């Protein structure tokens, strides 16, 4: 028997392949490199106690106007005023809503583990679809497991290559993602700038379908979309109009039916989408419109077709929340009294706040150094609010975002305003304009860790 050499391979094709493989492997970047590179950023934010005051604060009780949290610095339980809940009417804690949820839970169990078009349709889901469609004066409604899924499903289901979608630059990220993933020709227009919208439509290809997309109430600054002008422009350019009423339902209009009711324009939106995670106080999203539109999207909105149905107990609770919105207007009235009281107090202090259009009250901070400083000191003083910087807003336009709700007491609102007054005086920002506040923020050093915390 001959022995075969196990020495180095002879030069030739095999050697070339081996050398090429080694070279390629050496040049390939690990997919997780970006994750490891981000770690020092998070570690630095934690060291300066910025991350802990903004992200993943652990609740030990219900999300409400006052919350009990596991304090990230001390480890103890602390009560805080909460201004970053989206439950504007507090309906997630309403006895009627809780009772309806419990009853359905006893009947149907805690989940509905099937897609809608298979076994995921149940009477509670159907009742919710009918309730929402009637609430908005539409023929039909399709429910999604989240507001994000609704935005993605509607955009990718309706739009495709050759179509055009033009959206407000501050439209919610979910709608922008859906527009991008749809394959349509995507453009944006300057915030609430109807002339820029018209120019974008004029410059767009004319042979495909056209969709204009806007929020009803913009989630960061609380501004209203100019609905009458948007409708007129869409009509002039043979476009359909999509309005996201996420922050509008239950809040805007005489009976809480959103900005269509605010402007006296029922049915103005060709496609009306919304979420149940704001005034209804739960989770889930929807699209309401014509019967043809909804029948089409039931099959072509993949984020509905290829996911499990919203649980029946949640559907029952949301349906009851819509009944409460219609039958108990005192929650909406209290919400607006609270928003006016808080906004008026901040305006009188000299903080830079825009005109009040919704229960979202933004306080201008400008530079991120000032935003981080104010947000950390608010947190340490027991006030939790939203902290908004780039890319949610343009660079240099950072804000503290206060979301007022119907369950806030006068004491809550006054205490938060007093805390802001103290900080405003400390950093010299009362009575100043945007450029002056930016300059103060730019002059601040980055935050350092708090000794002993």
Number of strands: 13
Q: How many separate domains make up the residues? A: 2
**Level of helix content?**
40-55%
Distance between the termini: 77 Å
- Radius of gyration, in Å, reads 26 Å
**CATH structural fold name of the largest domain:** Aspartate Aminotransferase, domain 2
So what's the CATH class of the largest domain? Alpha Beta
- Outline the biggest β-sheet: 7 strands, mixed
The structural class is: alpha/beta
Descriptive report:
This protein is α/β, with parallel strands linked by helices and 453 residues long. The chain folds into 2 domains: 41-90 and 330-443, Aspartate Aminotransferase, domain 1; 95-327, Aspartate Aminotransferase, domain 2, CATH 3.40.640. 44% of the residues lie in helices and 15% in strands. The chain has 18 helices and 13 strands. It has a 7-stranded mixed β-sheet with strand order 4-10-9-8-7-5-6, with helices on both faces. It has a 6-stranded mixed β-sheet with strand order 1-2-3-12-13-11. α15 (330-349) packs parallel to α17. The longest helix is centred in the last third of the chain and has 20 residues, at 330-349. Residues 1-11 have low confidence and may be disordered.
Notable traits:
453 residues, alpha/beta, Aspartate Aminotransferase, domain 1, Aspartate Aminotransferase, domain 2, 2 domains, 18 helices, 13 strands, globular, disordered N terminus
